[in-house]
Amino acid sequence: MDAIDDPAERLAEIDDVRRRTRAGLYLSWFPLVLYGVVSLGAAALAAVSTKYVGAYWFVAWIVCFVAVGRYAAARADRIGLGGSPNRRYTRLWIGFFVVLFVAITVAVNIGGGAPAIVATSSVLLCAVYLVIARWERSMLMAFLGIAVAVSGVTLAALDPPYLVALANLAIGVVLIAGGLYARSLEERP
Amino acid sequence: MSHPTTELDDVVHQRVRLGILAVLAEASRADFNFLRTTLSLTDGNLSRHLQVLEDAGCVEIEKVFEGKRPRTWVKATKRGRAAFARELDALRALVDAHG
At what angle are helices B15-26 and B78-97 packed, to 10 degrees? Predict the structure, then answer.
């Protein structure tokens, strides 16, 4: 057995190894930037007409989810780590869409309109990011979730013209900024 | 009341082996190259420690061919995860005991 010189130091080493492993498993700029770009696309669409934004997000999300899954598998293989948590992410996002659909239906039926839809979507998206942040122990994901909620709820409260477009624009900017920051972290030794 | 050091496991307490189990506490499996790079080890050194952990039933080692490329995957067993958790508890108890 090694001499037990400093248990605190040993614990710190373990934490560092675990942190680097988690970074290999989870930290990735690609999904954030991809969803950010898709959100900018939704903003452009909503600026013209909000009629098809829901359908756009539904189709875009499926395409993005498949793309992110393939990217994650290839990345894990390249790095040499297993344990892709795809299944629980899938369950989480499906749950998000079900709850979102119900919440939006309720909001529309009680006459909430676009501000209620934007606020509800932002808060639910924040909740998803906070769950992911907990799984990945990522302050960045928690920060992004809160930024999405704050920007969405603020815009909903102000209810400016082009609200849906602006909300998607804000989410897109937040996600792309977060993705670029995550990328800069990945490139650190 | 026993001293916290009595809870330390000879197999798991060793620094490199503890590092291997720390990686495997986060990932369901890791390949030989990831472990070697992350823990800054030589091939021989890592192999020796993996053998000790495998003999103790703490890890399972699977050697496969992916295309023409050989690859060694390592994953923690239930016993290995439990031993790692006990080791962490023991280390924390030591830190607490010494303030």
Answer: 120
**Cβ <8 Å between B23 and A18:** yes
Contacts 24+ apart (CB under 8 A), A89-98: A89/A132, A90/A65, A92/A128, A92/A131, A92/A132, A93/A61, A93/A65, A93/A128, A96/A124, A96/A125, A96/A127, A96/A128, A97/A58, A97/A61
Partner B, chain A 23-42, Cβ-Cβ below 8 Å: 24-25
Nearest Cα residue in chain A from B32: A80
Kindly state the tokens that stand for B95: 């830190």
Q: How many CB atoms lie within 10 A of CB A104?
A: 17
Reported ipTM: 0.87
Q: What is the pLDDT of residues A47-72, one digit of tens each?
A: 998 889 989 998 998 899 889 888 88
* A83 contacts on B by Cβ (under 8 Å): 26-29
Architecture of domain B8-97: Orthogonal Bundle (1.10)
- pLDDT tier at B5 (50, 70, 90 boundaries)? low
Chain A, chain B: beta-carbon pairs less than 8 Å apart: 75
Helix (H, G, I), strand (E, B) or coil at A82: strand
**Nearest C-alpha in B relative to A135:** B26
User: Is residue A73 less than 8 Å (CB to CB) from chain B?
Assistant: no
Would you place residue A1 in the very low, low, confident or very high pLDDT band (cuts 50, 70, 90)? very low
